[in-house]
Amino acid sequence: MLRTGVLTEMNDNRVREANFGVIAGAREGDDEVYAFPVNGTADACKDAVQTYGVEKVVDLAVEGAELSSDPETLAKAIADAVRHFELKALLGLNSPRGRDLLARIATILDAPLALDCLKVDLGQGIVTKSHFSGKTLATLKLSGTPLICGIRPNAIRSRPDPREADILPYQASVEGAGRIRVKEVKKAESETIDLTEANIIISGGRPMNSAENFKVLHECADALGGAAVGASRAAVDAGFAPHDMQVGQTGKTVSPQLYIACGISGSIQHFAGMKTAKVIVAVNTDEEAPIFGKCDYGLVGDLFEVVLALTEVLKASS
Ligand SMILES: Cc1cc2nc3c(=O)[nH]c(=O)nc-3n(C[C@H](O)[C@H](O)[C@H](O)COP(=O)(O)OP(=O)(O)OC[C@H]3O[C@@H](n4cnc5c(N)ncnc54)[C@H](O)[C@@H]3O)c2cc1C
């Protein structure tokens, strides 16, 4: 049986939800899946990932190294384990941490690397990925092993596939100390759900007019059952929302099930960040706004009226 590895990102010792879709991508070819916990313990990782079909959780250690704060040594240790377990591919999230580690590992192994993948066919070595800031999609055939792929969060749907995973302790042999130390990780300014992992996002544009007015979107997000709130660059540049809420080419790339754009014109730069949303709904006062040519459902109207009405209906029906 072929084996595929998955970098499994954890925060506060909990597996990030978006990893489950990556595991589904790794299981497409019915491969045996090896999880590599990143920033968490093997035990906590095992409890979460075995429900999604992972069979082995690698408990990685390097003598004298603290892997959670030493990305260079961590990458070398994972590369060593990939060789040891003869993995044919290694997948991870296309997150800042995932991109950093996957690129280092690909360099160490001299392996083909594809980032921001929306689909993978590991059997054929074919990936579909976003190109030119999301303006085009490319289908690439990768040659060489192991294939190293960063998967856009939520691009592949997670699929429960319960089994009993084993923990495999592995002492990696790594020469030389890493030159980088992560000393502190600061939490994002916004306290809402991470945009890249959200199933539903409601975003506001320039006509939000103030940071205060974003409360309207936060209330609607709560009524939607814990949606995340995003913003266009115009709203961020005007100081109405922090940069970690920005969706688009120079913000975050998101793939929710539902994206509600409120008072957003639909520039190519904004669209680049949310066009893989499954359903796009737009609310705009201008019936000629470009967003209406790109959405599944469009509502011509004032965003404040529409969002308040939607929140009321949702609250009444809950
Ligand atoms: C290199 C580069 C990178 C960029 N990166 C990004 C990026 O990452 N993300 C991003 O978003 N942009 C980005 N931009 C900016 C982008 O080009 C647009 O300027 C920006 O997306 C516009 O934001 P907006 O739609 O909120 O504002 P506007 O273009 O001003 O549109 C506001 C819309 O709201 C409508 N409206 C007005 N009042 C109401 C109301 N009361 N109710 C409902 N609708 C109303 C208007 O009809 C209009 O369509 C980038 C630009 C460049 C050059």
Describe the structure.
This protein has 318 residues and is of the alpha/beta class. It folds into 2 domains: 3-171, 3-Layer(aba) Sandwich (Rossmann fold); 195-317, Rossmann fold (3-Layer(aba) Sandwich). It is 26% helix and 27% strand. The chain has 8 helices and 15 strands. The chain has helices spanning 19-27, 42-49, 71-84, 96-109, 214-223, 233-237, 268-274, 303-317; strands at residues 3-11, 14-15, 32-38, 56-61, 89-93, 113-121, 126-131, 136-141, 147-151, 166-171, 200-204, 228-231, 258-262, 279-284, 297-300. Strands 1, 2, 3, 4, 5, 6, 7, 8, 9 and 10 form a 10-stranded mixed beta sheet that branches. Strand 13, helix 7 and strand 14 (279-284) form a beta-alpha-beta unit. Helix 3 crosses helix 4 (96-109). The radius of gyration is 21 Å and the shape is elongated. The chain starts with a strand and ends with a helix. The model has no long low-confidence stretch (mean pLDDT 94). It binds flavin-adenine dinucleotide. The site of flavin-adenine dinucleotide has 27 residues, from helix 6, helix 7 and strand 14.
